[in-house]
Amino acid sequence: MQTRVKTASEIKAMRESGRMLATVLEYLRPKTVPGISTKQLADLAAAELKGLGGTPSFMGYQGFPDVICISLNDEVVHGIPSPNRIITEGDIVGLDFGVTHKGMITDSAISLIAGRPKAKGHEDLLERTEKALQTGIQAVHDRVRTGDIGSAIESYLKQYPYGIVRDMVGHGVGHDVHEDPNIPNYGQPDTGPWLDKGMTIAIEPMVTLGTEQVLIAPDGWTIKTADGKWAAHFEHTVLITETGAEVLTKV
Ligand code: MG
Ligand code: MG
After folding, report:
1. What is the pLDDT, as a whole number, of residue 214?
2. Which ligand has an atom closest to residue 78 CA?
3. Residue 194: predicted pLDDT
4. pLDDT of residue 174
5. Do residues 189 and 151 touch, judged by C-beta distance below 8 A?
6. Can you give the pLDDT at residue 87?
7. What pLDDT is stored for residue 8 in this prediction?
8. Residue 155 domain-assigned?
9. Where in the sequence is the domain holding 40, given as residue range(s)?
10. In the Cβ-directed half-sphere of 122, how many Cα atoms lie within 13 Å?
11. What's the CA gap between 147 and 239, in Å, rounded?
């Protein structure tokens, strides 16, 4: 499905959806500590969102079996919550969540470190991946091209010895979890599809401490780095405006 220019009421619903989403992620942040299982975190997310009045977008999406993706360490995205997966000291934890409200969907992710970081490099990775997301958001305006956004993200990250994952990309969002076009985290300025004000997109750099190559784990869902190096992922859903972008997934 091609992403459409959203109506005023659709945008209002997405602002509400995005606020719920960000509220749940902030609720999970202090609970993401050594000793808790990823399934416990998923259940907390489900209960908190229910209380806020939203519906989890990922449950059942293309068969995904839970409300949230939780990806640890060398897992980049799409980790499945499990009662057997216990978070340990220093893990990099990616929380990727989607909320449906009045038929409209927002999508956002954060990465954080449980307890004490194992290495300064892990804190740097998270800080720079989040900065890459902000750099991509700052590139947005009416009639921006997808390559303008990707180029901004890639140019910022290129100063570091990181892998920028290419197999997974940002996307249009709103009526569906994933709408066309793709929004890669790399590219050339003045290339790719044009995006108009009123469209809503998810920008989501995925950055590794090693290779950009990823593989799919035997569970058929979890995307991991091919070399086992750790990764980070930050994502916001934004509304394209005349001169910039409005972040919708914020409290
Ligand atoms: Mg997401
Ligand atoms: Mg997404």
Report:
1. 98
2. 1
3. 98
4. 98
5. yes
6. 98
7. 98
8. yes
9. 8-247
10. 20
11. 17
Ligand number nearest CA of 179 is 2
C-alpha span between 80 and 39 (Å, rounded)? 8
Ligand 2 mean position to 177 CA, how many Å?
7
Residue of 12, 69, 45, 20 lying closest to 200 (CA atoms): 12
The answer to whether position 142 is within a domain reads: yes
3 found inside a domain: no
Record the tokens describing residue 129, joined without a space: 């991946």
Task: For residue 29, report the distance from its CA to the centre of ligand 2, in Å.
Answer: 19
241 part of a folded domain: yes
Q: What is the pLDDT of residues 19-46, one digit of tens each?
A: 999 999 999 999 999 999 999 999 999 9
For residue 124, what pLDDT is reported? 98
User: What's the pLDDT score for residue 115?
Assistant: 98
Specify the residue for token string 């929380």. 95
Number of domains into which the chain is organized: 1
Task: Return d(Cα 200, Cα 140) in angstroms, integer.
Answer: 11
pLDDT at 201: 99
- Predicted local confidence at residue 145, as pLDDT: 98
* Ligand 1 center–CA 200 separation, angstroms: 14
Neighbours of 232 (CB within 10 A): 29
Omega within 30 of 0 (cis) for the link into 181: yes
Residues of the chain with confidence (pLDDT) below 50 = none
Residues with CB under 5 A from ligand 1 (ion): 96, 107, 109, 235
What CATH number is given to the structural domain containing 193? 3.90.230.10
pLDDT for position 251: 96
pLDDT for 67 equals 98
